[in-house]
Amino acid sequence: MASKTHTAPKAPASRPAGKAYTAPGITVFFDKKRCIHFGACVRGLPEVFDTERKPWIKPEEATIRKVTEVVRRCPSGALHYVLDNGPAEKPEPATVEPRPNGPLFVRGALRIATRRGVVEDTRAALCRCGASQNKPFCDDSHDECGFRAAGTTTVNPWGKKS
Ligand code: SF4
Ligand code: FES
User: Fold this and answer.
1) Of the residues 28, 30, 32, 38, which should be mutated to test ligand 1's pocket, given the most ligand atoms within 8 Å of the CB?
2) Residue 18: Cβ within 10 Å count
3) What is the mean pLDDT of residues 99-114?
4) CB distance 101 to 149 below 8 Å
5) Per-residue model confidence as pLDDT tens digits over 123-142
6) pTM given for the model
7) According to the model, what pLDDT value does residue 161 have?
8) Is 30 found in the same domain as 79?
9) Are residues 33 and 75 in the same domain?
10) Domain that holds residue 44
11) Number of domains the chain contains
């Protein structure tokens, strides 16, 4: 019997969605529609991510290694990066984490069906309360509708405890 060969998951091929913030060697992309104000960015690198400042993202304020590490913490996929001369963000092993009173955080080589077509990504926060206006993505409506459900904070421990 032929043995199965394992193919490594590919990173998303297209340019990340959102506004670009460029510094030497790196561009960070921010897609406002996908942000759920989890706070991993502002807690992880306040000198780079500062919502009181314009522009609010300044990748030049830290090393590329630190910026990429903190961007990958963003559970919603609102933040991505592209390096001038480096590897694209690689998907992590697949994980699904139901957050307390909030969305499903998913990571991996994702292909997400939306009304506008398939979105390829490495990270996403998917609505599980049913109230999001941006389904299948979470838009923080769970806070307003009073959604209550058990969850964990073990896979993505960097942000607010929802
Ligand atoms: S970590 Fe991502 S979801 Fe959270 S505030 Fe930053 S950009 Fe928004
Ligand atoms: S879980 Fe966040 S909007 Fe539904």
Assistant:
1) 38
2) 18
3) 97
4) yes
5) 999 999 999 999 999 999 99
6) 0.90
7) 55
8) yes
9) yes
10) 19-83
11) 2
